[in-house]
């Protein structure tokens, strides 16, 4: 009997061990790509490296999903409580179509306790990925969080075709742990497991148009800035280590290394790299946008379709119209901001700003008379 039990346990451990080994290799791959990105100067090759980096990040999430489904514990962990807006931003960064995702938190001071933060990133990323894949390419997916009576409510809304009542009820039963995992979709099966692990409530509801997924976090998983120390293990402090400066100052320091003439700001408070590129800091939620005006053109359905088509084919960044101008934007996440990422984004956008072929594609044909 003991031998039989041992064999069963060993059989269960094989997928988890394999996933952990693959995960370790993927982490090494991402680290190597980071070094290549830092050394690369050619904008075209740099864009290719960014795409590979983002693909590797998605592979890492899939491997972590296999660990979840095998019943293994979290592949990673955090020592400290994590800002809720940073959790949502981290989830956004793991989604293939991340430029379509809009994130907002009603109270920026809210934090997720350390023991749940990593799994919540994974859970939200799976839901965002599902929402982007089952909604129209040109439409936004919104992730918004606010307090409610039970703790904190996260709503992920898309503008897809929606679900019929029967399908929605069946999926909600499985997400709630009744009738097995959310069969038919790997992502929702992972969501169901993670929700049970932390006592979250996840349910699908109808939106107009599309679908909204509501994730309710119980109060025990949430800490405000003032009581975060009680809700999470204390961080290990290094004597003499300086406090992290605000995001705006960190961005200013990086911009200063790229400009011999000093840091120049626009009337709107953006940092100016040159006549074609500016860097905009959004402190809450934390985000850095590298922007370039590409072409002045009137808006219209033809332009919107063209922008959606071209953005879908870009490895990083997006194109959008505002104020009579088509803009290119490459976002840099304020969550765990790295100066090298900002420098690389500037290089990518420099290539886009100089791409006359891209501008030619944006010049629309005049309407036929």
UniProtKB/TrEMBL annotation:
Record EC number: 2.7.13.3
Domain Histidine kinase: 120-221
PROSITE patterns assigned: HIS_KIN
TM segment ranges: none
Catalytic activity: ATP + protein L-histidine = ADP + protein N-phospho-L-histidine
Annotated source species: Paractinoplanes rhizophilus
InterPro entries per UniProt: HATPase_C_sf, HATPase_dom, His_kinase_dom, TCS_sensor_his_kinase, TY-Chap_M
Keyword vocabulary terms for this entry: Kinase, Membrane, Phosphoprotein, Transferase, Transmembrane, Transmembrane helix
Molecular function terms, GO-annotated: kinase activity
Entry protein name: histidine kinase
Highest rank taxon of the organism: Bacteria
SMART domains cross-referenced by the UniProt entry: HATPase_c
Coiled coil: none
């Amino acid at each position: 009997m003991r031998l039989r039990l041992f064999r069963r346990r060993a059989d269960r451990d094989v997928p988890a061990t394999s996933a952990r080994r693959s995960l370790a290799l993927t982490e090494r791959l991402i680290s190597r790509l980071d070094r290549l990105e830092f050394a690369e100067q050619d904008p075209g090759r740099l864009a290719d490296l960014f795409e590979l980096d983002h693909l590797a990040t998605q592979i890492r999430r899939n491997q972590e999903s296999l660990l979840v489904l095998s019943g293994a514990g979290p592949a990673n962990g955090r020592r400290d409580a994590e800002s809720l807006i940073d959790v949502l931003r981290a989830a956004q960064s793991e989604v293939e179509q991340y430029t379509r995702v809009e994130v907002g938190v009603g109270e920026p001071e809210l934090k997720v306790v350390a023991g749940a933060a990593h799994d919540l990133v994974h859970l939200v990323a799976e839901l965002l990925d599902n929402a982007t894949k089952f909604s129209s390419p040109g439409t936004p997916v919104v992730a918004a969080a606010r307090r409610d009576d039970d703790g904190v409510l996260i709503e992920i809304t898309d503008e897809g075709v929606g679900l019929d009542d029967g399908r929605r009820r069946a999926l909600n039963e499985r997400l709630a742990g009744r009738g097995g995992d959310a069969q038919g979709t790997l992502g929702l099966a992972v969501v169901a497991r993670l929700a049970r692990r932390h006592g979250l409530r996840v349910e699908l509801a109808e939106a107009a148009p599309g679908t909204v997924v509501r994730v309710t976090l119980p109060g025990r998983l949430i800490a405000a800035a003032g009581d975060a120390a009680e809700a999470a293990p204390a961080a290990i402090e290094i004597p003499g280590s300086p406090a992290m400066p605000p995001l705006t100052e960190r961005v200013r320091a990086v911009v200063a290394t790229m400009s011999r003439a000093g840091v120049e700001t626009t009337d709107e408070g953006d940092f100016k790299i040159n006549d074609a590129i500016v860097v905009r800091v959004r402190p809450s939620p934390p985000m850095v946008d590298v922007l370039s005006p590409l072409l002045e053109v009137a808006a219209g359905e033809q332009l919107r379709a063209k922008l959606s088509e071209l953005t879908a084919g870009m490895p990083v960044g997006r194109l959008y119209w505002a104020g009579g101008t088509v803009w290119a934007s490459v976002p840099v996440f304020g969550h765990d901001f790295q100066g090298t990422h900002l420098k690389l984004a500037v290089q990518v956008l420099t290539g886009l700003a100089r791409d006359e072929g891209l501008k030619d594609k944006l010049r629309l044909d005049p309407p036929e008379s």
